[in-house]
Amino acid sequence: MVFALVLEIGTAVLVTWVTWIAAVGRLSRNPLAGVRTSVTMSSEAAWRIGHRAALSPTMISAAMTVVWCALSITIVPLRTPSSVIVAAGVLVAGALISVPVAHRAVRRASPER
Fold first, then answer.
1. CB distance 83 to 5 below 8 Å
2. Rounded to a whole number, what is the largest CA-CA distance in the chain?
3. Which residue from 51, 64, 49 is spatially nearest to 21, judged by alpha carbons?
4. Do residues 37 and 99 lie in contact, with contact meaning Cβ atoms separated by under 8 Å?
5. What are the two backbone dihedrals, phi and then psi, of residue 28, each rounded to the nearest 5 degrees?
6. pLDDT tens, residue by residue, 80-106
7. Fewer Cβ in 10 A, N or C end of the chain?
8. How far is Cα 86 from Cα 99, in angstroms, rounded to an integer?
9. How far apart are CA 59 and CA 12, in angstroms?
10. Closest by CA position to 6, among listed 79, 70, 96
């Protein structure tokens, strides 16, 4: 269980890092990483705007995941498969929240949409 929880921490850090480098323009539109929807992929500007907006929910869900995993590692009764599922659920929830947040930001920035 400890390995799976540490893997969840690594995933949370990776997701946050990818979102951050896309938000600051160090990761351009691509078919593999980031919030890849028709709205965010419509232009480089939309890509950056969407990721800037998605950064907050991504960071919140990642922080929650890291804290939960750290607690689950240190408190033995929490070291269960359910803890890993909860951590994964929090990360997925953050991603699901990030997409509409990114879309709204792009649409607000683009008056023609």
1. yes
2. 54
3. 51
4. yes
5. -85, 175
6. 999 999 999 999 999 999 999 999 999
7. C
8. 20
9. 8
10. 70
CB contact at 8 A, 49 and 64? no
The residue whose two tokens read 């593999």 is 32
- In degrees and rounded to multiples of 5, residue 38 shows phi and psi of -60, -35
For the chain, the first-to-last Cα distance in angstroms comes to 47
Cβ neighbour number for residue 38 with a 10 Å cutoff: 8
All residues at 6 or more sequence positions from 23 whose CB lies less than 8 Å from its CB, including other chains: 48, 51, 52, 54, 55
Q: How crowded is residue 64: how many other Cβ atoms within 10 Å of its Cβ?
A: 17
Q: Are 28 and 44 in contact (CB under 8 A)?
A: yes
For residues 88 and 74, the answer to whether their CB atoms sit within 8 Å is no
Q: Token pair of 105, please?
A: 């930001």
Q: Is 33 helix (H, G, I), strand (E, B) or coil?
A: coil
pLDDT digits (tens, 9 = 90+) for 21-77: 999 999 999 999 999 999 999 999 999 999 999 999 999 999 999 999 999 999 999
